Design the sequence.
């Protein structure tokens, strides 16, 4: 079946699904998003972008931003980053502080909140927060080839007003000497990076460098891309990362806005969005759509269709 037909069928199946999960309610801007929406976009190695459903509707990328900040951090700091954050799956919720206490302020990986805050802190490195946000937007715009990507300031304000657990994580790491900047500065960047808005089409385009597809200018070396993919496979869905690897078999990263970015190395970058979440905080229909796409295309990195 042609890929466009597969996407159209997936979008039609998702439109007819009544059990759509629950939208995030911790800030009003996410709580009022219509759970009836679903979009999917696929950027291919030949330059085409195919899409179906609500693929042109902007949504809050939330934790998907952690992948791009990690790419920037590795580009700037190289392997020195790994003295501050680990590379192991956590098996814990995204905002858990449990392991952080046992492991003395050294987060398990860059995709749980504590690890992402450390990555952002490392990129900030004494600069002004707005410089880092400009760098992130510049990176996303260059990677996608779309100058329209922006931050939703209302979402950033709400994140700042409610992010008490993130404040706690940052202060906990500060007490253990694992923050270089005043926590409120690093958190200011972190809350704004979560508030970046993108469409599925923009996100699929921005993920091309992670899939090893041709992008001009090149964003990151293939050696680093390979490592980011490994981390997405092992840690991209928090305590449901094993489940995503089992069901989909692609490196991916989810966000509580309902977006998921996944890459089929050498073939495609895929973005899905549906705002209803499953019990682990990833898009319910987005995960189902990724599973179906991987099955019908045979794109799983572990091989074999169906
Ligand atoms: N803004 C959310 C937080 O930092 C992002 C969580 C997510 O997308 O998984 O708690």
Sequence:
């Amino acid at each position: 079946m042609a890929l466009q037909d597969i996407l159209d069928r997936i979008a039609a199946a998702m439109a007819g699904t009544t059990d759509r999960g629950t939208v995030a309610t911790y800030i009003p801007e996410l709580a009022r998003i219509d759970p009836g929406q679903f979009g999917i976009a696929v950027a291919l190695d030949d330059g085409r972008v195919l899409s179906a459903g609500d693929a042109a509707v902007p949504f809050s990328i939330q934790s998907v931003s952690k992948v791009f900040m990690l790419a920037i951090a590795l580009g700037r700091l190289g392997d020195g980053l790994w003295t501050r954050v680990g590379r192991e799956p956590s098996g814990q919720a995204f905002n858990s502080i449990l392991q952080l206490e046992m492991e003395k302020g050294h987060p398990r990986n860059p995709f749980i909140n504590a690890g992402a805050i450390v990555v952002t802190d490392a990129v900030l490195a004494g600069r002004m927060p707005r410089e880092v946000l400009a760098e992130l937007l510049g990176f996303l715009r260059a990677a996608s080839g779309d100058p329209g990507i922006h931050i939703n300031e209302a979402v950033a304000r709400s994140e700042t007003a409610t992010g008490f657990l993130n404040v706690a994580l940052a202060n906990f790491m500060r007490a253990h000497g694992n923050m270089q900047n005043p926590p409120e500065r690093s958190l200011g960047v972190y809350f704004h990076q979560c508030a970046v808005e993108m469409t599925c089409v923009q996100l699929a385009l921005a993920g091309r460098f992670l899939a090893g597809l041709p992008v001009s200018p090149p964003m990151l070396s293939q050696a680093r891309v390979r490592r980011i993919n490994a981390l997405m496979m092992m840690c991209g869905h928090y305590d449901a990362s094993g489940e995503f690897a089992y069901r989909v078999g692609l490196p991916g990263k989810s966000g509580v806005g309902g977006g998921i970015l996944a890459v089929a190395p050498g073939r495609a970058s895929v973005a899905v969005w549906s705002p209803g979440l499953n019990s682990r905080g990833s898009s319910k229909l987005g995960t189902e759509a990724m599973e179906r796409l991987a099955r019908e295309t045979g794109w799983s990195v572990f091989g074999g269709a169906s």
